[in-house]
Amino acid sequence: MTWIVRNLWLIPAMPILAAGLSPLVPRKRRLLTASAAVGSMSLSLLLSLIAFAEVLRLSEQRNTTRHVFNFGWFQVGSEWLKVGWALDPLTAVMLLMVTFVGLLIFIYSIGYMAHDDNFARFFCFLSLFAGAMLGLVIANSLLLLFICWEIVGLTSYLLIGFWYQKPSAAAAAKKAFITTRIGDLAFLLGMVWLYSQAGTLLFYDNGAGCLEHSVLIKLVAETTIFGMAASTGIALLILCGAIGKSGQVPLHVWLPDAMEGPTPVSALIHAATMVAAGVFLVARVYPLMSAHGLLDLSASATPLKVVTWVGAITAVFAASIAVAQDDIKRILAYSTVSQLGYMMLGLGVGGVAIGMFHLITHAFFKALLFMGAGSVIHGCHEEQNIRRMGGLRKLMPITFATYAIGMLALCGFPLFFSGFWSKDAILHASFTWNVSRVPFYLAAFGVLLTAFYMMRQVLYVFFGKPRFESAGTTPHESPTVMTLPLVILAGSSILLGLIGTPEWEWFRAFLNDQQLRFDLRGFEESGFLAVMLLSTALVLIGLGIGWLLYGKKPARTAEAPDAVEEFTPRIFNLLRNGWFVDAFYGATFVRLITWCSVSCDWLDRWIFSGAVQFISSLTVGASRLSRSTDVLVVNRVFDQSCEEAVLSGRLLSRLQGGRVQGYLRIIGIAFAGFVLFLIWGRHG
Amino acid sequence: MTTPISYLLLSALLFAIGLATALIRRNAILVLIGVELMLNAANLNFIAFWRYSPNPEALTGVMFALFSIGVAAAEAAVGLALIIAVYRHFNTTDLDRIDSMRG
After folding, report:
1. A651 at the B interface (CB within 8 A)?
2. Among A188, A277, A453, A659, whose Cα sits 20 to 30 Å from the Cα of A643?
3. Residue A622 CB contacts under 8 Å (≥ 6 apart), including other chains
4. Cβ pair A3, A115 in contact under 8 A
5. Residue A304: exposed, middle, or buried by beta-carbon count in 10 A (0-12, 13-18, 19+)?
6. Residues B101, A664: C-beta atoms closer than 8 Å
7. ipTM of the complex
8. Measured between CA atoms, how close is B98 to chain A, in angstroms?
């Protein structure tokens, strides 16, 4: 075991350390906190590079590429609860992505948050997030993963509600926290179930971990309710957690609202890393998801089918909503939901490598898009409505160029952009899925929609005539500290595609631990070329429709109706309101819970509180009675007797004059009386 | 048999003077003197009753008187010692001011 494996914990420890330090720094030393955060991230990136190199070295030696380091955390009865970390290709790739994108976003934030009063708090939360996310990535125990998962959720809550003075931000933070909590509850249940069945939460533990063959066989053989294998039930419950975190239908509602947070947060947490944690989780427990295949090779495992369907439906559902949004960040948020759907779809139909490839490429170009959007918002003086922008192409050239690259990568524009290769891999895998062809059609339609809404957004923002509210405020290009990360990310959005092209499937080989091959015939493999041509056509059609509707005659004023709105106002309205999912939840679940709360309140107020008050008033009455008895009877008797005793004492104490002669006098008088009695008394 | 009425009257007079001294005088020493007078009145009674008793040969009254004088000497010593102790404590022998035992 090498040094880096033993000390993998240092990677998450660095940003957490920075997060712990920043509250101690004086408020005025803003740059110190920022440099602590950036410095810790750079160190983490360095360590991640070392870890990545280590994995590369191992995979070249054809050794096993997974190294784990487990240790006992605490003892329950006679059993040790063990946690630990693992270094394998999946971890290494994620580490590299999170630290790299994170570092760029940290640098970008220095510029974006420069004028915020709570600069230090922002970097504290951001560092804490990065640390927890890295901990989540290296975890070799479902428990450790869950702990980091929850810390990540907490920081997400804190950062969405960063501007908590805004009621909408506070509400969005609450919504995000509660919605993901629904999924996490199921995740927790799945984890408990897994522990009760497998007796361990370690993923890999020299053959005894819960993702290894011996335990999986046991889990598959165990039959539970509805004749379902235990592994299926556990996998479905864990999947619920992933659905909540990754904003999949039906728990996607929090993600668009999460855009209330600062834009770097949207880029880092709600586009590149945290929401991808759900996808990463599914990839991590993939052996459990696909465990059914151990018994019956022909059938696709139920959890994977669910993953596929959820992903496909989310992909097209969210893309359709993005078509009708006006807020630049909300469009990107729905686009994120849609892309997460693609990742899930990729995991479901194609396995870890395909889903993860899209996750990595998406992280780069979506972070780029969000930061570009942030640059636009920053330049337009906190304006987020795309209808009040326009013509920014000339005013913000760097932002426009990088944004365009991000947009083309997201659309999957052929050949030069990473999104094309990763999305094509997913499309191809769903095309060859042996269960159903429907997810493929959904995904293909999603591609069309993606190209269309991105074209619409770019045309609204960067082309046409300026439609600002006041003519006096000219948008300006952002400072270098913000544009530099954009350029770097734009470069990686293009170059990353190279590691996953069908001819040179380095990425897949790396993750699956296979022999790497360079093969031009990759294109010919079971309709790959056909799918590629189809998707290219779809992208071009989507872009074309977008150009026709929005590019040929751009909107002149901010109030002019949208082109789609003119065409089909009812559908546009439906999409604008997100298929009324929020309203539906508001009318059903929220109303149900409100009703429950109101009835609980009523019960509390009238029944329980009444009973309590009745009992308390009884007690009060009894106490009053007891008190008056005390005062009137006991006290008076006692007081009276005391008074008598005092009085008599005072009376008697007069006799005790203290003068000896006084006593003597009394004795003398008594003696004289006695003598007189003796002399005359007896005869009388 | 004659009655020693004159002795008894003298003794009674002595006793009355002693009692009056003990009751009236404020000085503790004089009170002690009064007590001694009363004691001597009693001794006189012993002698008188012995002298006029049926058999004066038996010397009983003298014996009593002698004992009584001896005890009185001891008592006077104790009494004086007490008075000195009281004086040291209160810096006075005025009995009216020695009333710390008042209830």
Report:
1. no
2. A659
3. none
4. no
5. buried
6. no
7. 0.81
8. 7
